[in-house]
Design a protein that fits this description.
2 domains; mainly alpha; about 120 residues; Bacterial mobilisation domain-containing protein; single chain
Length: about 120
């Protein structure tokens, strides 16, 4: 008989925890980095430069915290469901909520661009 494969192990992390691990991994595959830290913590992990090194970790943490605290995904999902069923009346409140969501997304995008130090094509 062949070798049995062991099912993968899942681990839930907060946005902040994952951002810290990705920063510490410095471009290494996240799974490989976590495995090396857990199974061989005495060995210094190899440091690789990522494709998009983070320029500003504080801005990135601010963005991740903003995403974690927002109900943006849930709200957009509810709006999409209402639009698909035809039950989305465009009231001044709905319009205000959409404008607010767009503003929040624009701020998060700007913070992410600054934190990752990437140039955006016009």
């Amino acid at each position: 008989m062949g070798e049995r494969t062991i099912p993968p192990f899942s681990l839930r992390l907060t946005f902040e925890e994952r951002a810290k691990l990705e920063r510490d991994a410095a471009g290494m595959a996240l799974g490989a980095y976590i495995r090396s830290r857990l199974l061989d913590p005495e060995t210094v992990a190899p440091r690789k430069r990522g494709k998009f090194p983070v320029k500003d970790h504080k801005l990135l943490a601010q963005l991740l915290a903003m995403l974690g605290q927002s109900r943006l995904a849930n709200n957009v999902n509810q709006l999409a469901k209402a639009a698909n069923t035809g039950s989305l009346p465009v009231t001044p409140e709905v319009e205000s909520a959409l404008v607010s969501a767009m503003r929040d997304i624009t701020i998060m995008r700007s913070l992410l661009i600054q934190a990752l130090n990437v140039e955006v094509m016009p």
